[in-house]
Amino acid sequence: MSKELIRLSQCTMAFDGEVVLNSIDLVINDKEFLTLLGPSGCGKTTTLRIIGGFATPTSGDVFFDGVRINDLPPYKRTVNTVFQKYALFPHLNVFENVAFGLRINRHGGKKLSKAEITQRVMEMLEIVSLKGFENRDVTSLSGGQQQRVAIARALVNRPKVLLLDEPLGALDMRLRKDMQNELKRIHEAMGITFIYVTHDQEEALAMSDTVVVMDGGVIQQIGTPEAIYNEPVNAFVADFIGESNIVDGIMIADGVVEIFGRRFKCLDGGFAPNEPVDVVIRPEDVDIVDVKDGMLTGTVTNITFKGVHYDVIVDFKGFKWLIQTTDFCPVNSYIGIKIDPDGIHIMKKSAYSGMFGDYSSYSAEYDEIGDADYEPEEPDIEEAPYEA
Q1: Cα dist from 337 to 162, 251, 259, 372, whole Å
Q2: pTM of the model as a whole
Q3: Count of domains in the chain?
Q4: 7-11, 99-103, 345-349: lowest mean pLDDT where?
Q5: Same domain for 189 and 279?
Q6: In terms of domains, do 9 and 40 share one?
Q7: How confident is the model over 311-320, as pLDDT tens digits?
Q8: Sign of the C-alpha dihedral, residues 138, 141, 147, 151?
Q9: pLDDT recorded at residue 87
């Protein structure tokens, strides 16, 4: 069973009367890799600063190993931080950058010997894959190598917790992916708690044991990457974590939901009969079939080749869906789709209902999409052709 290390209890933070954290509760376990994920202004960095001691909550409590630490200054907490800007000393080589904290701090009330410092630094450089770089000028290193120096400097003091505030934000895409793997490896090698802040959902899913999704100063959902992706609790989480088609539905009964007048089998239950719900269908869970076999039929309005699959935008009675498929479907083609019960997820209505999931103006990567021309011979959809 995991041991609790940090607890935030009813923590609120306000600046000039504006609440940026709203009574959040969060438990972080020893040796866990936990990611705070959300858009800019959601409160994730403020949460990190509270844990590190750089900010004191307006109300609420912070506990470390069961001891309240609200008033404990950062330098007395067994916590170190790696920022997006590496803040390395350009006049010091790699070894001296990593050794800096050991030279200015006393450990256990005594000064470390030169031999002890050398041993600790060299062990850390090996962990971050920089063995042999100790005499290199930090300004001659690549961005990823500089980031590893910053991580080594933070870890050489052997903290119980490493805080990482968007540390990969300055790296290019390929280097970010490489560093994601490096951070996972370093976390396993060190066996301490990592608390990571990012707005990049791919980073969160790739590295974390636990993901905390935040918006508007409130924790929306806490869970494993798999649970957050497969079982989002509301439309915000479903939209922020990956791509999602989010449509209005009616929960007819346990295991049966109605979308666009047609009934589909699903695996969810526990809703009131005929309760309005939000329905999440991931793009990869939709199969394109012949029109005669389709549970729904619609018109392709856009197709983009993505390397391993096509991103296809399909118009269903004015609502645009994103479908990811290896099948090529020309623009203006009329298609059917099939969705298995485990590809349909049902959520309670929330303040986010109706805000996400329609790709009518999916202009981040595609041209703006106009309305499709509807086929007059579209099949009648009054009856519900779902499979028993």
Answers
A1: 47, 20, 13, 17
A2: 0.85
A3: 2
A4: 99-103
A5: no
A6: yes
A7: 999 999 889 9
A8: negative
A9: 82
Among residues 185, 201, 230, which one ends one of the domains? 230
Q: Is residue 366 part of a domain?
A: no
- Is residue 340 exposed (0-12), middle (13-18) or buried (19+ Cβ within 10 Å)? middle
Collect all residues with Cβ–Cβ distance below 8 Å to 89 and sequence separation of at least 6.
Answer: 96, 97, 100, 138
**What is the per-residue pLDDT across 245-283, written as a single tens digit (0 to 9) for each?**
999 999 999 999 999 989 999 999 999 999 999 999 999
Bridge partner list, 81: 163
Backbone angles phi, psi at 153, to 5 degrees: -60, -40
**pLDDT tens digits for range 208-234:** 999 999 999 999 999 999 999 999 999
Q: Is residue 359 part of a domain?
A: no
Q: Which residues constitute the domain of residue 35?
A: 4-230
pLDDT at 101: 82
Task: Look at residues 261, 49, 26, 4 and name the one whose alpha carbon lies nearest to residue 163.
Answer: 49
State the chain's maximal CA–CA distance in angstroms: 85
* Residues pairing with 161 in the sheet: 79, 193
Rama region for 200: left / alpha / beta (φ>0; ψ in -120 to 50; rest): beta
| CB neighbourhood size of 286 (10 A) | 23
Find out whether 26 and 214 touch, Cβ atoms under 8 Å: no
The reply to whether 381 falls in a domain is no
In the chain, DSSP finds a helix count (H) and a strand count (E) of 8, 20
Instruction: Indicate if the pLDDT at residue 371 is higher than 70.
Output: no
In a 3-state reduction of DSSP, which class is residue 61?
A: strand
Q: For the domain that residue 157 is a member of, what is the CATH number?
A: 3.40.50.300
Residues 6 or more apart in contact with residue 124 via CB below 8 angstroms = 98, 152, 155, 156
Tell me 343's DSSP state.
Answer: G
Residue type, 376: P
Six token digits for residue 336:
């059917």
